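Recap from last week: sequence in, structure out.
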Amino acid sequence: MNKRLDWREDMDEYIRLVNKSEDYIESHLSEKISLDDLANNANMSKYHFHRLFRKYSDETVKKFVTRIKVERSGIFLAVRNDLSITDIALQYGYNDASTFNKAFKKYIGMSPLEYRKARNDKK
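Predicted structure tokens:
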């Protein structure tokens, strides 16, 4: 029974670690976030960290970071017509609009410009 409690405590600690890492990602969206950064923040090797993150979040670190950046940028595309797509791309840590466009289209299924137009047409 003692081993069982230890296992549950470990699992709880890993879930807390993943949540802390997700918070770190959310607060650093304007930067390039690497696996090394997250692992260092968690005081783990990048291999162990990635394995735990994948297990407890159902996504790889890269997919999670991309998804969050694209979802948050979609909000800006819909409500901030005064910002160019390039400005939004840079705000979310992309080096250029082309890289942002590819990531956005892959995740959302349309380009940022198409997404912005579709959202504006609904208003």
